[in-house]
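Let us practice reading a record.
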Amino acid sequence: MNHPSPQIVVCGTDTDVGKTVVSAWLVQGLNAHYWKPVQSGLEDGGDRGRVQSLLNLPPRRMLPEAYAFQQPVSPHWAAELDGIPLNPDDLVVPHCTGPLVVETAGGLMVPLTRRWLQIDQLQRWNRPIVLVARSGLGTLNHTLLSLEALNRRQLTVLGLILNGPAHADNPGTLEQFGGVPVLAHLPTLSPLTAESLAREWKRQGLSSKFQDLLGIQQP
């Protein structure tokens, strides 16, 4: 994937699996722009506001949402509650100088409309995917089902990033049955800061790993 401005889509196996923190980790490590096309729930500025606050990034690195709904519920329902129809044709991946990290909402099968699932949008975008999964109990079923759904759509999955406390067996089992690599493991960081994220990125040697994956020079 040799491209002057590589684009990664960050998906999750479930809600609250850690997509936003992992997206921030990738944005920081790749010196990328951030875009969440559909935001449900605007408390604290939504996920865009949380990423910007965590990383202290300039506004130009934070691309505005295509849709931002008030209620923290599934996008299809949030759109209905706000009376704003969501048109998938509006979800065009923006062009920007340098890498772009796209964070999706919820899991793969979350409805964006009553007729359009998030995985339909992933297929339309056809961009490489990083799947975020929990590290511990329950991750095997959720993650393997998600990988099977992505494989059925013939979507490219770069690999998994596991979020949470280290687990002795799950990473190897996921690689064995899922057929994709575990790219990284983001442990619970206390405090969670830009500095602690940067240290973990460096400790795991992720600059060279993503340079190989994406064909770009890392900062």
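A brief commentary: The chain has a mean pLDDT of 94.
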